[in-house]
């Protein structure tokens, strides 16, 4: 039996187990020397770790990280690290985020191929608790730019997320009038999408 063979989608048994949060199967496989615990899928460039953190499986992530050959800073085909993928997960992945942030070999300000950073992805996903966790750290810039010159506040205004706008405005580093590469400020996006709630917050009228 080949425990590290790939199927038609170029995924190994460990990749499938990690992506589905099957901790017992992951435990069985990571203890074997004939299993490559950091193997990338050729189609997506994802590793077992990136698949499990994108689903928020903190326990499985810990099991994988016991292996010294697992690189938490590896990137997928979009140049996203497991850290960034965990922020983009629909469930917020707060536990996984904390696990990864505790490591010295994970870059918190890493960008994907479009220049989008973890904080942008978290804001875009509407994960308030994760955003608050990130903003407690000094190595996250709340006014950082993506490849289009957009800040997290641009994203929050674009999405019409009033709660996220309020969280970001609590940060003294955030520039309300910063324009992106198209010349738009966060208020432009609030106006474009006729979002009166976000507009009032940006104007300080709430």
TrEMBL record:
It comes from the Eukaryota. ANK repeats lie at residues 148-170. This is Ankyrin. Keywords: ANK repeat. SUPFAM superfamilies: Ankyrin repeat.
